[in-house]
Amino acid sequence: MVQEICLLLLKASAVYFLCINVVYAVLMLLSWMKIKRYRTRVKDETIKDLPPVSFIIPAFNEESLIVETIQTYLSLPQSKKEIIVINDGSHDQTMKLLQTMFQLQKVQDRIFKSITQPELIVLEAPHMGKAQALNYGVAHATYDLICTMDADTIPTARGVEACLRSFATDSKLVAVGGVIQALNSQVLKNNSPLQNRSKEWLTTFQRIEYLRAFVCERLGWSFLGSTLLISGAFCMLKKEAVRKIGGFNHRSITEDFDLIVRLRRAYPGENHHFKILPVTTCYTQVPRTIKHLSIQRMRWQMGLVQTLMENIALFFNPSHGPLGLFAIPYFWFVEVLSPVVEALGLVLIPYALYQGWVDAQTVFLYLGIGLFFNLIITLFGVYFDNKYVSRNKYWSCFQSTYETLFLHLGYKQLTSWWRLKALFKSLKKNKSWGDKPREEIIHQTL
Asked: Along the 446 residues of the chain, how does pLDDT read in single tens digits?
């Protein structure tokens, strides 16, 4: 009886991961189609004036990088822009640095403007959390388009322009984002990392994860009109839409995911567009220690479950088209449940081998096929990014191959374990992000 149950569960797990790999292959193909369609459309576009935009950047204890980050926004070529920094009750030197480096002048209670940089506005507020700080910034934004970004995010001029062009040519567009790359070097030149590859394995693994998630998956969902997540590290939206749904939800663990899902409910159907563009919009710092990576991944998983549960009405809802029929079920069956199935396999496979219920050659054959498929996904992502997305030739096929191999020898299992723990913790009400250290950013001028 035990043998039959064990073998049945192993077969079900094998079918489960086979189906996931098929979905990945389809998304990768759709991502390629998205890239080709985008390139064709951009060639035919002739736009003289781009719309203005308000960049909204919440900052809490960002003294190590806030000045350098703002300099990257000020250096963007767009003339019609404003940069709104919300000092969210920082108790370090964040506000003092802003006042000194940009010569801030108080114009109203808690509102400061830079004498040297007229487009820079700093709002001072008691600590209220990222969501509320963003809402505070939205309330003071001048322009109809807003772009929410993190204080450790470095925007690219090409990505900002691509998003603005999308709004200029698509009146139905509600929100847009692009490909986010993990920052692999603290030294920047022209707002791009100077060093091509990170020397730290933890950063390297996260770079590969970001590549696969954005270039090989989210572009595919965007092609289907089923974008469900536009990362808060870079998200450009219509201010009116954000206000319509009451702004960012301060009770949400992942306010960016929650916002887009609520916007999709408020703006359903084909008359409202949400897009991911095949362009690098920004580089973002990633955790450099196991401790902080575990906190991040568990928070992401808990926020995923929270948002999906609060919007359960979208599950298999045909009135929302591919979003309800495919994207939402995908997030449930793959993003939520895959850690459970992986953990089940890690327990059952060694036990079945020990009992002699399965053949070792068969097990290694299946594992080898799965690993090979993951390598193919990574290499396609490398090709897409080098040729079409970032176009910086940052990726090496040879290095990416052995990095992907090492990624599956411990790191992937570790992240799955964190996600599994998060499922059990998702019912708790602890919503503290914990400590989130920053690394200094250095601009190189030649």
From this structure: 788 889 898 899 999 999 999 999 999 999 999 999 999 888 777 777 899 999 999 999 998 889 988 999 999 998 899 999 999 999 999 999 999 999 999 999 999 999 999 999 999 999 999 999 999 999 999 999 999 999 989 999 999 999 999 999 999 999 999 999 998 766 555 555 655 556 689 999 999 999 999 999 999 999 999 999 999 999 999 999 999 999 999 999 999 999 999 999 999 988 999 999 999 999 999 998 999 999 999 999 999 999 999 999 999 999 888 999 999 999 999 999 999 999 999 899 988 898 888 888 988 998 899 999 999 999 999 999 999 998 877 788 889 999 999 999 899 999 999 999 999 888 665 545 455 555 555 555 44
Q: Which CA distances in Å does 302 have to 306, 351, 433? A: 6, 30, 12
Contact 155, 236 (CB under 8 A): no
pTM: 0.91
CA–CA distances in Å: residue 413 to residues 314, 339, 340, 407, 440: 30, 9, 12, 9, 30
**Of all helices (H) and strands (E), which one includes residue 284?**
strand 273-284
| Cβ neighbours for 294, distance < 8 A, ≥ 6 positions apart | 418
- Going by C-alpha positions, the residue among 416, 230, 252 that lies closest to residue 334 is 416
Q: Which of 75, 40, 37, 38 is nearest to 55 (CA)?
A: 75
How many other C-beta atoms lie within 10 A of the C-beta of residue 229? 24
Distance in angstroms (rounded) separating the CA atoms of residues 264 and 323 = 9
Torsion-angle region of residue 103: left (phi > 0), alpha (psi -120 to 50) or beta? Answer: left
Look up residue 104 and give its two tokens.
């801030």
Phi, then psi, of 396 in degrees rounded to 5? -110, 130
Count of C-beta atoms within a 10 Å radius of residue 105: 11
Query: What is the layout of strands, in order, in the sheet containing 104-108?
Result: 104-108, 111-114, 120-125, 81-88, 53-59, 145-149, 234-238, 173-182, 273-284, 153-155
Instruction: Please state the φ and ψ torsions of residue 307, each to the nearest 5 degrees.
Output: -70, -40
Q: Is 94 exposed, middle or buried (0-12, 13-18, 19+ CB in 10 A)?
A: buried
* Residue in 324, 322, 329, 327 with CA at minimum distance from that of residue 314: 324
Encoded tokens for 123: 């709002």
**Torsions phi, psi for 112 (to 5 deg):** -125, 145
